[in-house]
């Protein structure tokens, strides 16, 4: 019998919800001049009440994917990555500031 890793929805929701309960999402344009990077902040969103249901829906739709970050000599762990601009869809309330 080989190990079969899995994440239960309750485990996923708890872990993600404790790290992402409420947050800000900033969209910016960047440019580099003379070796310095500059940012122009275009939009800022306040994201309130992380939704486990929305997170599982995003997994099913392919907006969330698993990144096995194992490198030669050191394992950086397993991560969930999110498609760009999909973060606001994981929250019950989105307020543009």
Structural commentary:
By secondary structure, the protein is of the alpha+beta class. The chain has one domain (9-96). It has two helices and five strands, in the order H-E-E-H-E-E-E. The strands form two sheets. A three-stranded antiparallel sheet has the order 1-2-5. The protein has a two-stranded antiparallel ribbon with strand order 3-4. A hairpin with a 2-residue loop joins strand 1 (23-33) and strand 2. Helix 1 packs across helix 2. The protein is flat, with a radius of gyration of 17 Å. The mean pLDDT is 86.
Percent helix: 10-25%
Rounded to the nearest angstrom, the distance between the terminal CA atoms is: 53 Å
Number of alpha- plus pi-helical segments: 2
Query: How does the major sheet shape up?
Result: 3 strands, antiparallel
Mean pLDDT: 86
How are the strands of the biggest sheet laid out side by side? 1-2-5
Give the helix/strand class: alpha+beta
Coarse morphology: flat
Radius of gyration: 17 Å
SSE string: HEEHEEE
Unreliable stretches (pLDDT < 50, length at least 5) are: none
| Number of individual domains | 1
Total number of strands: 5
Beta-strand percentage?
over 45%
Tell me the layout of helices and strands:
Blueprint (H helix, E strand, L loop, with lengths): L8 H12 L2 E11 L2 E15 L1 H10 L2 E8 L2 E9 L8 E6 L1
Antiparallel strand pairs: 1-2, 2-5, 3-4
Helix pairs in contact: 1-2
Q: Short description, anyone?
A:
The chain is of the alpha+beta class and 97 residues long.
Features:
97 residues, three-stranded antiparallel sheet, two-stranded antiparallel ribbon, 2 helices
